[in-house]
Amino acid sequence: MSKIGFTTSRSPTNKTRTFIHDMVSMVPNSSRIPRGSANEIFCLTSMKNQGYETAIIVNSVKGNPNFVRLFSLTDEIEELSYAIKIRGLTLSRDYLEKRRQRKPAVSILISTLENPVEEEILRKFLGISNVSIEKFKDKEYVTVYADYLDKDEGIIFIEFLDKNNKQTGPRIKLRIIKRNVQNKDIEKLDGD
């Protein structure tokens, strides 16, 4: 299972920090990496040196988590050519009573997307395992449901359910977008 590091753009808002906390509590084998005043390449290089295979940077717009960039850290630091645009968000604190929840060991995806590219991006973002549910039924796990709210617009709704089928974690409306990414700058800075 891939080790995932979640971080923010510089000077994140409280809502963005809470979103990262929610995500780390739902995504197996993930950690929050404080960015501080470090520049992006230093932060990504540090994650790579700590053994992370995927880095996720959450950017804010007008105080809300808005744009998520994904990076592969396995060989070279490489930004993926897809990003996630957050179109709506309900944090777990907004609908759950305060209770301590255990971090899942694995997560599974139940999707009606029928789009292998979008499903693969969600697998990277959410740390989805390819293991069948029978192999981990005695462990803590979370089920991630993904469905289109608007197929023409590509708006996807994500929700998390624990093994008792109770809602947990954030509820997210998002859109996966294709981007033209120039990784030469990252490789050049990484080599200096």
What does this structure look like?
The chain has a 9-stranded mixed sheet with strand order 2-1-3-4-5-9-8-7-6, with helices on both faces. The chain has a single domain, classed as Brix domain (Rossmann fold), CATH 3.40.50. With 192 residues, it is α/β, with parallel strands linked by helices. Helix content is 22%, strand content 39%.
Write the layout of secondary structure elements.
Blueprint: E1 4-8, H1 14-26, E2 30-32, H2 40-49, E3 54-61, E4 64-72, E5 78-90, E6 106-111, H3 116-126, E7 141-150, E8 155-162, E9 167-178, H4 184-191
Parallel strand pairs: 1-2, 1-3, 6-7
Antiparallel strand pairs: 3-4, 4-5, 5-9, 7-8, 8-9
Sheet with the most strands: spatial strand order: 2-1-3-4-5-9-8-7-6
Overall mean pLDDT score?
87
Give helix and strand order, one letter per element, not per position: EHEHEEEEHEEEH
Helical percent range? Answer: 10-25%
CATH architecture term: 3-Layer(aba) Sandwich
What is the CATH superfamily label?
Answer: Brix domain
The 3D shape can be described as: globular
Main attributes of the structure:
disordered C terminus; 9 strands; 192 residues; nine-stranded mixed sheet; alpha/beta; Rossmann fold
Q: What's the short story on this structure?
A:
The protein is an alpha/beta fold.
